[in-house]
Amino acid sequence: MQLRGPVVAVDEPRTVQTSNGQSDLAEVTVRPDDGRADPVTVTLWGKWTETADVLAPGMELLVIDAQEKEFKGEIQYSTGRDSMVVVEPDFLVDVTDIRSWVQCPRMYYLNKLAGLPLAYPVVKGTIVHEVFGDLLRGRDLDESVDERVAEAGLELGLLDRDAASVAEEVRQNASAIEGWLNQGTLTEEDQWRSEQTLVSETYGLKGRADAVRRGSPVELKTGKNTNREPRFQDKVQAACYALMLGEGEAHATEQATHASAAPDTGTLLYTKNAAVERTEETGDLSPAKDFSIGPGFLKYVVRTRNEIAAMEADMSVPTGYEADAKCEYCFEQDTCMAVSGRLEQESKAGQVGRAIPDEEQDYFKRFYRAIETERRAVHREYAKLWRQNADERAEDDRALIGLEPLDERELDGGRWELRAAGTGAVSKIREGDVVLASDGHPIRGKAELARVKQLGEEIVVTTDEPLDLRRLDVYPSEIGVDRMLTALHDALLKQPAEQKDVLFDRRDPEFRADDTTYIDNNEAQNEAVSLAVRAEDFALVHGPPGTGKTYTLARTVRALVEQGERVLLTAFTNRAVDNALEALREQGFDDFLRVGTETGVHQDMQEFRLKERGDPSAISTELREASVVAATTASCGSTVMREQEFDVAIVDEAGQITEPGALAAINLAERFVLVGDHQQLPPVVQAEDEMDGDDTADLGSSLFERLIEAHPEASVMLDRQYRMAQRIQAFASREFYDGQLRPATGEVAAQRLTDLPGVSLDALPAHLQDSVAFVDPDGRARGNTNPDEADAVVETIESFRAAGVEADEIGVIAPYRAQVAEINKRAPDGVTVDTVDRFQGSSKEVIVVSFVATGSLDGPIFEDYRRINVALTRAKKSLVLVGDADALSTDSVYGRMVEWAR
Ligand SMILES: Nc1ncnc2c1ncn2[C@@H]1O[C@H](COP(=O)(O)OP(=O)(O)OP(=O)(O)O)[C@@H](O)[C@H]1O
């Protein structure tokens, strides 16, 4: 039987005398049935007491194959011979993390903190792995090596490597693989497959096995190993995959016990063994080393995984004393000592260097906590893959279900293209995304990581192996949180102290004197460009809706380039990055380089995109020498971008970016300019509910907001807007901008619908003739929808259409996705219906807002008053609010809004 629930108490392990001699035990009290049942005691025997050592109340415990016994009328539970004990099973520990943890827990921590560096052995290792996969899929060796080396062109170039010598080295490694494969093993019956993504809902593991042969894991290592046995940490890694493969097998054959279905051997392939000189090296030079995986080893692996899960649950920092690793033989010793010294962490290796100041220590701890809390929210997303059923996933917009497989086709290079008929349903999945494709269940069925090529009536994805395409699931990613952590590390431990001074309020930002005029028709914009150009540390540009932020930003880039500065241009979204480039182009400047993926970058900017494939020296020179590099803040944390240096970083949409997210960009430059509006959308934090006040404040508010409050003298507010008619902007100006926002020109202020060709006001019903209108359909909210409101919205749209307004000039904003779907069902083609978040940064001639709520409000409908500011400032000529006036009037802000609109 399985016992699962939160831990209530953990007793100290003790030793008792049993009929089989002495044995250790620890008693743990849990509330089974996910905490719904009364507490019971479970006795963990033998080595499982090591897991009891790391357990704490509140953690989730799973005992697989627990024994149940009645003793004096009370049911008692204990571990038996086949039991497995899993701590926090919903927290998926990465297999490569377990591998570094067994070497030294501190190494695990350092890797997590500092991220992957751009280093030749890492890049070469990746190429060899890819070639391995290609060979397994039957590709020609030379073709594969040339192709994979070319794909790594940018990284190799930045490392000053040339393609020919890398290809030679890769070929030497690959010959070990080829030799081994050619021993007659690669046949159909052998059931080979490469790169299998594995997720275990039982043992809380995730990872990607290099290859699987006859159900057993094969791991590739690009180093050498002249011992007969594989390295211990490599065996641990292979055993993790064995455990997960066993679980998959058990699901497929509906066996109850997973561990017994696990393969009992694993293979390690040390490719460098094939390249060493046999005359100089002694020992076992065969690349392939098999080992047997017994039940005891699998349990050891699970206990090790438990140590990580428990440490992550209480967010403690490992010291290195947990392992008997010898620091003096460790390559990481210097880094370990430096990090320990600077962050004042206890460490087995010791400490060197001076500790960073207290306020920075504090900052590190606060943000570390907040980021790790956010990581746990990502892990809850993973758990939804098996905790929610298909309908719930679809309802949550996280899956496309009920697809009908159409056909599959093998592509050049051995990958597959799968097609299925869609159902018309929508989800968060977008073209270009990497998702989990499955034949029905993303974890328990056959599943593959897939890249989405096309969505719509026909759905097309590419995968490593074919399968019946029946379902696509969002596959959560930790890359965002990983990068935030690395940015935090880089900001505090790599940046010079003088640069940090202004961030920690030890010094005020400084400005040079200069009175050049950059923009002659808008004083605030001119002042903003000037401030940015004169800044020795940073400048802040506050741009309310439609005030020409993008225009000003583009002018700033040009001014900086004219001074010979190298500029990094970034924004939170790809769209804003491309908009800024478009504005630059309109101003006659196109000497920029766009860094981003093919699917992320707008069609119009593809010609400026840096291609990562090709001749190393040519591509890397292109990047190194570009005077303007444009990328999203998320990609500023990539290994490639982390190698770049700039004079100035300009960050657009800065109000929407978490503080560590912004650090990723400003770490790369000596000075920075933040452009944004903290009265519009704040950073999106998934773990909002879990974070206590302080943590949310840390991730939920932007660096822009913190600095503009601390240093108003380093900011300029753009106060003239080029978008809205006077009447439309009045409420937002008063409510959110102290009445300072004004139309830039008389034309902007006085614009009317009749300015649009073919539109006649007379054709509109009287209540829609004013540029701001309020419609109360007296509807009733049902959950997150309000069908009567949806009807009123559609009727309003029809009136505007009848008066001659084009469908694509009309936008509808609703607070919930359910209401968006409700309206979309009935709205005419061409009208954009969406949530506020998707409307930020855009505008329409006519905007209709649906508020949904009826009765009395228990909080701002759009989550946050900043969202209503965004919703009300998208319209140029006509804004119609559709809502329940009585309900809205129960809130003071909405009450004033109704007064204004009626
Ligand atoms: N100084 C100016 N002179 C003339 N036109 C301007 C000026 N500044 C901005 N504009 C025009 O006003 C419009 C809005 O500008 P822009 O797109 O830069 O606004 P924004 O603040 O970035 O908008 P959003 O609120 O959507 O981010 C554009 O058409 C732009 O060309």
TrEMBL record:
EC top class named in words: hydrolase
A Pfam family that the UniProt record links to this protein: AAA_12
Reactions catalysed: ATP + H2O = ADP + phosphate + H(+)
Record flagged with keyword Aminoacyl-tRNA synthetase: no
Highest taxon listed in the record's lineage: Archaea
Family assignment from sequence similarity: Belongs to the DNA2/NAM7 helicase family.
Molecular-function GO terms, alphabetical: 4 iron, 4 sulfur cluster binding; ATP binding; DNA binding; DNA helicase activity; hydrolase activity; metal ion binding; nuclease activity
Record CDD domains: SF1_C_Upf1
Cofactor(s) annotated in UniProt: [4Fe-4S] cluster
Name assigned to this protein: DNA helicase
Listed EC numbers: 3.6.4.12
Species, as recorded: Halorientalis brevis
InterPro entries, alphabetized: Coronavir_polyprotein_1ab, DNA2/NAM7-like_C, DNA2/NAM7_AAA_11, DNA_replication_fac_Dna2_N, NA-bd_OB-fold, P-loop_NTPase, PDDEXK-like_dom_sf, SF1_C_Upf1
DNA2/NAM7 helicase-like C-terminal domain location: 700-885
Domain called DNA2/NAM7 helicase helicase: residue spans: 522-613, 617-687
